[in-house]
Amino acid sequence: MSSIYYQIALGRVGVAMAKPSGFRAEQPLAPDLSADRSIHRGGPSSTSPRRDIVFVVNPRGANGRTGKEWKKLLPYLRSRLGRECNICESLTSGPSHAIDITREAIREGADAVIAVGGDGTLHEVVNGFFWDGKPVANHEREVAHPTALGLIPLGTGSDFARTFGWKNDPHEAIERIAKGLRSRIDVGVISREHGELHYFINVADIHLSAKAGYYASRYKRFGNLCYVLGALQAFVGHRNEDLRIRVNEGEWEVYSQVTAICIGNAKYFGGGMKITPNAHPSNGNLEVVILQDFKWYDFILKLHKLYKGTHLSVENVSSKSVQSIEVEHLSGGGSIYIQSDGEHLGFLPRKICNLPAAIEMIC
Hints:
Blueprint: E1 6-7, E2 14-15, E3 38-41, E4 51-57, H1 65-81, E5 85-91, H2 97-107, E6 112-117, H3 119-128, E7 130-131, E8 134-135, E9 148-153, H4 159-163, H5 170-179, E10 181-191, E11 198-200, E12 203-207, H6 208-216, H7 225-235, E13 241-247, E14 252-264, E15 286-292, H8 296-308, E16 317-322, E17 324-329, E18 337-340, E19 343-347, E20 350-362
Parallel strand pairs: 4-5, 4-6, 6-9
Antiparallel strand pairs: 1-2, 1-5, 3-10, 7-8, 10-11, 10-20, 12-14, 12-18, 13-14, 13-17, 14-15, 15-16, 17-20, 18-19
Helix pairs in contact: 1-5, 2-3, 6-7
């Protein structure tokens, strides 16, 4: 597989070289990344080589708005970064293409891969950082630091960005890239017996909310209203279910009448709902929030609390910090939905673990 990068450096558009030039970090990586997640500033000095930065863009995202906004953003991107970086644009052509682009960019030694768009594009780029259960590595040359992840929120924006307090402002995102400050962040990984691993950076969820997300994907053309439409459809025929849960390899426990389980590496999902308010991608844990015995009217009455992140004190809501959680349907049926970062993954059972300090991110 070979993707084509379009080099836009210094305002010129043309096909970039297949093998980017080597890179050098301003400072070496700290040996104990779990102890000090703040790495270094990657901004170039007068003697630093130009950095190769790959921008992964889904031009059809947000009903085509992402592609249109990206074209408008390019002149500013060139003026701000073009003198210091080789800017490589890579447009996705379909599902999972961003995963392939990211893996190739890392193997060829890119300094950073930037997801341009919403949480769906970011989700695929994060999965591109891994292959066969291991981080993708540059096998062809020595590098002082690994490829970093970056984000320019475009289109409908990014729930993940809200955790860091980032505005839905691409110009601010470009300034972050220009400064090049990196920090190690955690990633969640979802597994099942004899199945592939799946990675997420924001929130994974189970049962009603995952079913709502599955239906919401059909209404993306309506913007954030898609979450409301998806929830309404998910409520039709919904039943709370008894689930078996095991935390941190401990004893199995039965949770009765579970409505939804949300496992947060970050705080927000569903277009701004602060569902796991104590989560953060740099704390080494996942926050699990369990809603039990909720009726449809509970969501209406308590929706404002879910958006503000004040729902943890509500009756039938529990929260815990974990490093791993396993969830099974007590009846053994394969009808309980699971998704991560808004992407449908299938049905239970699943195991979800935290990978501390797994990726460097420009932040």
